[in-house]
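User: I'm preparing a small set of examples for a lab meeting where we compare how different chains pack in three dimensions. I only have the primary sequence for this one, and I'd like the structure in token form so I can line it up with the others. Please keep the answer compact; I'll paste it straight into my notes.
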Amino acid sequence: MSEQNTVVSEKQCPEHLRANRSAFSQWFGRSILKVLGWRVEGQIPNLERILIIGAPHTSNWDFVIAMATALGLNIRLRWLGKHTIFKPGAVRLLKWLGGIPVNRSKPLDIVSHISNLVERERGIVIALTPEGTRKKVDKWKTGFLRMAEAIDCNVFMIGLDFAGKRVVLGEIFEPTGDHGADLTAIMKYYKRYNGKFPNQE
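Assistant: Understood. Below is the structure token output for the 201-residue chain.
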């Protein structure tokens, strides 16, 4: 397959952040994106630790696209999801995909768990959706900024553009400590992307 026709490749991910997934897993991720007409643009930054935020989050399809992208990139990704989605029968698959169940009523436990992961692993990528829900919200939560500060890393912004069927590995954002200003800047950046249901953005 030529580079021009490749929808996603592990070459877009630094070697030290790659997972040991099988060639079949990577092919499966690429195939899902190809069948759905999507492509992945850009590069994962060559950093030791990254906190990824993906937006806009308006549909269950976002998860499908995100997991296909992760498999296609062969990235060693951990993502945070509500503990309620980790139902019997699905737990094993979701954890294999990198899922970490979180109880939002215990935010300190989440940060502690992530901090322990960072201490154990040389390179780590944590991903989450800043909106925290598929429903329309006027203002995002600042938990991801506090987490970035706790594990001393920058935020990498990934956009889901349903209009152009693109996953855009976008820009690095360095938190300033002013959560209000940071949130305003990040939300402004994401205005360029269209979710599946724009009226819920």
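A couple of notes for your slides: The beta strands are 39-42, 49-55, 77-82, 99-102, 124-128, 154-161, 166-173. The chain has a mean pLDDT of 87.

User: Perfect, thanks.
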